[in-house]
Design goal:
Strand content: under 5%
Protein name: Oligopeptide transport system permease protein OppC
CATH superfamily of the largest domain: MetI-like
Strand order of the largest sheet: 1-2
Radius of gyration: 26 Å
Subcellular location: Cell inner membrane; Cell membrane
CATH topology of the largest domain: MetI-like fold
Largest sheet: 2 strands, antiparallel
InterPro entries: BP-dependent_transpt_permease (IPR050366), MetI-like (IPR000515), MetI-like_sf (IPR035906), OppC_N (IPR025966)
Number of strands: 2
Order of helices and strands: HEEHHHHHHHHHHHHH
Number of helices: 14
CATH architecture of the largest domain: Orthogonal Bundle
Domain ABC transmembrane type-1: 105-297
Biased composition (Basic and acidic residues): 317-336
Number of domains: 2
Length: 336
């Protein structure tokens, strides 16, 4: 029988299950409990889920959309008819914010998830095969890192209406370009961690048993760097959202008629003193979005780190609870 306060931290990271008071608790359950004890992380998760629901369901609470113009309310502040006001073209800002938030979250989720998946496969493959395969793949990785991402984004999204610009929406084209440049740093880190895992006995045993490389990578390497991958997903989502806002702000990201938070902020920057609601509404949504992801990332980091005490300790129950410096003795016996 194992007491909760005497668990070896290495057991939490190395084993799949932990036995506490004769009850086997899965490692995933321990991580979830530690995450939920972090109030800041829970608040961040609640804010992110609320913004996600707002982006997909917020259009149901208004009769306006991003294309309908109200000629009688052009550049008007928030009112009962337009909850967040209207733009200079007379378009409801609430509808624009819903659409822009959805596009920004969609870009963040797709880029954050797929880039980490690409990095995991690429980095683990380099570490597993090594030798010439590792040399060639590392050369390709370093070449991609040296490419000027800003220039590539500008050329891909501002081609004068030719090629891909005519067949793909600007937000989808931006996702493709961001995917090309967002996985390389993570892949290098995963390669280093996977190379250390290749020296472990369980990996060598799997190789001696003739298990295919694909199964070794997916069953032994990837799960052992799962905590890093989860943290990189939240960081990747945040980075993709900030990249979209930055590129759209300078005019090389999302293009009109597509809408995003970066487009709304960029359009209102020059007139922030005249139409402040057009600037502060999307900027506030962006801060809430990136701030909630940062709080979630901190909570996940502490949840995966068994040595962290920022989320507190589990309470001990029962009559065996004691104070520091005091000992319990059987009833009926006295210390001379």
């Amino acid at each position: 029988m194992t007491n909760l306060n005497t668990i070896d931290p290495a057991a939490v990271t190395g084993g799949a299950n932990i036995e506490i008071n004769d009850v086997v608790i899965a490692k995933s359950s321990i991580i979830i409990r530690r995450f939920l004890r972090n109030r800041t992380a829970v608040v961040g998760l609640a804010v992110f889920l609320a913004l996600t629901m707002f982006s997909f369901l917020g259009g149901l609470f208004t009769s306006w959309d991003k294309e309908t113009i109200d000629p009688f309310n052009i550049g008007m502040p928030p009112s009962s008819e337009h909850l967040l006001g209207t733009s200079q073209a007379g378009i409801d800002l609430y509808a624009l914010t819903v659409e822009g938030t959805r596009i920004s979250i969609l870009i963040g989720l797709v880029v954050g998830l797929i880039s980490v998946l690409i990095a995991a496969v690429y980095g683990c493959t380099m570490a597993y095969f090594g030798g010439k395969v590792d040399t060639v793949m590392l050369f390709i990785l370093e070449a991609l890192i040296m490419m000027p991402a800003l220039l590539v984004v500008a050329v891909a999204t501002s081609g004068g209406g030719n090629g891909l610009q005519q067949s793909l929406p600007s937000w989808l084209l931006l996702i493709i370009v961001l995917l090309v440049f967002s996985w390389m740093g993570t892949a290098r880190l995963i390669r280093s961690l996977s190379m250390s895992l290749m020296t472990r006995d369980f990996v060598k045993a799997a190789q001696y048993m003739g298990i295919p490389p694909r199964r070794i990578v997916w069953r032994h390497l990837v799960p052992n760097i799962g905590s890093l991958l989860v943290l990189d997903i939240t960081r990747g989502i945040t980075g993709a959202i900030l990249a979209e806002v930055a590129f759209s702000f300078i005019g090389i990201g999302i293009k009109v008629p597509d809408v995003s938070l970066g487009v709304l902020i960029g359009q209102a920057t020059s007139q922030v003193s005249t139409f402040p609601w057009m600037f502060w509404v999307p900027l506030t949504v962006m801060f809430l979005l990136t701030g909630s992801l940062a709080m979630m990332n901190d909570g996940l980091r502490d949840a995966f780190d068994p040595s962290s005490s920022s989320v507190g300790r589990a309470k001990r129950g029962g009559p065996e609870k004691s104070e520091p410096g005091k000992t319990h003795e059987p009833a009926g016996k006295k210390t001379p």
